[in-house]
Design goal:
Blueprint lengths: L3 E4 L4 E4 L7 E6 L10 H19 L3 E6 L6 H10 L3 H19 L15 H13 L3 E4 L2 E4 L15 H8 L13 E6 L14 E3 L1 H13 L3 E7 L3 H16 L4 E7 L2 E3 L2 E2 L10 H7 L2 H8 L8 E3 L1 H25 L13 H22 L4 H19 L7 H20 L5 H29 L3 H13 L2 E6 L2 E6 L4
Parallel strand pairs: 3-4, 3-9, 9-10, 11-13
Antiparallel strand pairs: 1-2, 5-6, 6-7, 7-8, 11-12, 14-15
Helix pairs in contact: 2-3, 4-6, 6-7, 9-10, 10-12, 10-13, 11-12, 11-13, 12-13, 14-15
The structure holds zinc ion.
């Protein structure tokens, strides 16, 4: 079964058929780097990462481009407030963005992260093309897009011309021919950063950068264009108008819009003063917990960031890690499956549960990347594993092979979603457990010493030493440490 995507452009669930058979291009609108990125930005970026990971799993060669808006009114205003240059502020926050994204596990070496300020010539060329086609006009060093000449304007947001006019009239700009027109190039105001252009000193508008960078790095038509729900209008509508006017071909084939993230039931926003920064969340919870939370709802559904929801994710991951850890211990002792062995009833039930999980995981992900459903499949199998292992102290034969199969299914799917990291999560738990085990052995040894049972006491010491655990009897009691393996 193939992947289906809800395309915002058609408002329908469509079969995903990329332009070329094995390559997929994805463009995702990245952050404006006037501050650190917040959890809302993180949700959009993570959804894009999950789409990428799943399509790679399905055998596609994926190229992902996510831009950084590093020149904008917000950046200029914030820099002025802070008394630094816009360039320095954008640079520092851009670096912080990479650091945070790395921690969230959403960056791959093959990704491209173009910056607006590094694509000024490409934007100027696009604007010149639009002027030449009569789709743009120059007023006092600024260049505006002439919305009237793009007949399909409004096709993505499905806004009618009269709604568009009513909305646009709020900000009256005398220089525009039509209230819906938008700027692609802004003439420089005194003291603002600027670049030279055929129309004088100025800087690019926001919409033109995505058209220019998407087409430069991915070609005239891209497969998937992703972004937050709030970008659908006017940003994405304007990207379409600019790009399609220049090329005459479809700009993006599938439009994916990620729903808002709420904080304690309220919309995250300036007026509420309730921004949660990704880096603060990552300081408080492991990466896998944040990722689990952010994909616990399908991306078009609202998601609420509350202390309880994070606790829930934390508990779920603990269950998952314990389960995988247990399976790992059993499956390392597993032997090859004897041929033509009949299954017991419990084994048959378990085998069915493993098969169902694999099918259900893919069915969920195929259905517009429904991560909630995919997670449901994973945790249903966790329950089945626990049930099965209750009566299997020393699994051999078919039971051992089934355990290896469940282990494989759970690690593959949870690693794909990025919610399982054996090196971090399990190691932490294992370390906790082995510390407790050593403490228990030392207690037993101390009891033996009290009884002057030197044979047992020495045996424990020697056997621990063989495991590179060195114990030392001091007057204050017995201490121990791990020796480095040589
Ligand atoms: Zn964009």
């Amino acid at each position: 079964m193939g992947v289906k995507i809800y395309n915002s452009l058609s408002r329908q669930l469509e079969d995903f058929v990329p332009l070329s058979a094995d390559r997929v291009s994805i463009y995702s609108c990245g952050p404006t780097v006037y501050d650190y990125i917040h959890m809302g930005n993180a949700r959009t970026a993570l959804v894009t990462d999950i789409i990428r990971r799943y399509l790679v799993y399905k055998g596609y060669n994926v190229k992902l481009v996510q831009n950084l808006t590093d020149i904008d009114d917000k950046i200029i205003n914030r820099a002025t407030e802070l008394g630094v240059s816009a360039k320095q502020l954008a640079h520092e926050n851009g670096e912080a963005f990479f650091e945070d994204s790395q921690r969230l596990g959403i960056i791959q070496p093959a990704d491209v992260h173009p910056k607006a300020t590094e694509h000024i010539p490409e934007m100027i060329t696009l604007i010149e093309d639009l002027i030449a086609k009569g789709a743009a006009y120059v007023v006092d060093g600024s260049v505006y897009y002439r919305v009237n000449c793009f007949a399909e304007y409004g096709k993505l947001s499905r806004r009618k011309p009269e709604d568009l006019l009513a909305g646009a009239r709020v900000e009256i700009d005398e220089r525009k021919e039509d209230a819906r027109d938008f700027d692609m190039w802004k003439a420089a105001k005194p003291g603002e950063p600027f670049w030279e252009s055929p129309w004088g000193k100025g800087r690019p508008g926001w919409h033109i950068e995505c058209s220019a960078m998407a087409m430069k790095h991915l070609g005239e038509t891209i497969d998937i264009h992703a972004g937050g729900q709030d970008l659908q209008f006017p940003h994405h509508e304007n990207e379409i108008a600019q790009s399609e006017m220049v090329t005459g071909v479809q700009f993006a084939r599938y439009w994916v819009h990620v729903a808002f993230l709420k904080i304690d039931g309220r919309r995250m926003g300036k007026s509420e003063q309730n921004f949660i920064l990704l880096r603060d969340a990552l300081d408080n919870y492991p990466t896998e917990v944040i990722r689990h939370f952010l994909i616990s709802a399908q991306y078009r559904h609202p998601l609420d960031y509350t202390p309880e929801s994070l606790k829930k994710s934390e508990g779920a991951l603990k269950r998952l890690n314990n389960c995988i850890d247990t399976l790992h211990r059993y499956s390392s002792e597993a032997t090859a499956v004897p041929a033509h062995t009949d299954m017991s009833e419990a084994e048959a039930v378990f085998a069915t549960a493993i098969d169902r999980m694999k099918r259900e995981f893919e069915a969920g992900m195929n259905a517009d990347f429904n991560t909630a459903r995919a997670l449901g499949a994973i945790f249903t199998l966790v329950g089945a594993v626990n049930q099965f292992l209750m009566n299997e102290a020393h699994p051999t034969g078919v039971a051992a092979a089934l355990i290896a199969s469940a282990h494989n299914a759970l690690t593959t799917t949870s690693t794909l979603l990025g919610i399982y990291n054996p090196s971090e999560v399990v190691q932490g738990e294992l370390a906790e457990q082995s510390n407790a085990l050593v403490a228990l052995l030392l207690e037993v040894r101390e009891d033996a010493r009290q009884r002057k049972d030197w044979t047992t006491s020495d045996k424990i010491r020697d056997r621990l030493k063989a495991l590179n655990i060195n114990i030392q009897d001091t007057r204050q009691g017995t201490t121990w440490k791990f020796l480095k393996r040589t």
